[in-house]
């Protein structure tokens, strides 16, 4: 079982429950450093498998408000840079860190693929794409 992050074009990143939770935690930590990011950080922490259950973690960035979507993506990049510089400090088993870092970079690479206009199949952990739900989740929708 794994958890998902669905990107703007429906392609998906899949990670083991613990790997997904660690990425979401690191993004939330980055967001929590600003007043504007705290609500999204709190919401993201509730999307972890640790909270929802194994295999139930999911963030579909298309369901986030425009502001939250931008904050999420920016925080993801900043978080990866910060973690790379820090290394596996605080990891209970540092031997998992290098592979996790590769998976985190893969998420960033997927966004780069979107930015280059490549089709979702060019870099996608799923066999296809996920259709948008049209639902609204996370903070920021109340003012829209």
How is this structure best described in words?
The protein is mainly alpha-helical. The protein has one domain. The chain is built from five helices and three strands. A three-stranded mixed sheet has the order 2-1-3. Strand 1 and strand 2 form a beta hairpin. The relative contact order is 0.21.
Please outline the major beta sheet.
3 strands, mixed
Query: Shape from CA axes?
Result: globular
Q: Which regions are unreliable across 5 or more consecutive residues at pLDDT < 50?
A: none
In terms of DSSP E residues, the strand content is 5-15%
Helix content: 40-55%
The string of secondary-structure elements, in order, is: EEHHHEHH
The beta-strand count equals: 3
- Overall structural class, as computed from helix and strand content, comes to mainly alpha
Mean pLDDT comes to 94
- Report Rg: 15 Å
Sequence of strands across the biggest β-sheet: 2-1-3
Count of runs of 4 or more consecutive helical residues = 5
Give the terminus-to-terminus CA distance: 35 Å
User: Structurally, how many domains make up the residues?
Assistant: 1
Brief digest:
This protein is mainly alpha-helical. The chain has helices at residues 17-31, 38-45, 49-52, 66-86, 97-115, and strands spanning 2-6, 12-16, 58-60.
Write the layout of secondary structure elements.
Layout: E1 2-6, E2 12-16, H1 17-31, H2 38-45, H3 49-52, E3 58-60, H4 66-86, H5 97-115
Parallel strand pairs: 1-3
Antiparallel strand pairs: 1-2
Helix pairs in contact: 1-2, 1-4, 4-5
From the structure above, extract its key features:
144 residues, mainly alpha, 5 helices
């Amino acid at each position: 079982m794994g958890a998902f992050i669905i990107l703007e074009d429906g392609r998906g990143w899949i990670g083991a429950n613990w790997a997904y939770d660690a990425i979401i935690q690191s993004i939330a930590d980055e967001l929590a450093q600003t007043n504007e990011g705290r609500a999204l950080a709190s919401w993201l922490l509730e999307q972890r498998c640790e909270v929802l259950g194994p295999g139930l973690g999911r963030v579909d960035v298309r369901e986030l408000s425009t502001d939250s979507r931008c904050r999420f993506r920016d925080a993801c990049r900043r978080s990866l840079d910060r973690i790379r510089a820090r290394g596996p400090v605080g990891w209970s088993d540092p031997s998992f860190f290098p592979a996790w870092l590769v998976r985190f970079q893969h998420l960033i690479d997927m966004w780069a693929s979107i930015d280059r206009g490549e089709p979702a199949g060019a870099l996608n952990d799923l066999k296809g794409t996920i259709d948008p739900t049209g639902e609204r989740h996370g903070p920021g929708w109340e003012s829209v």
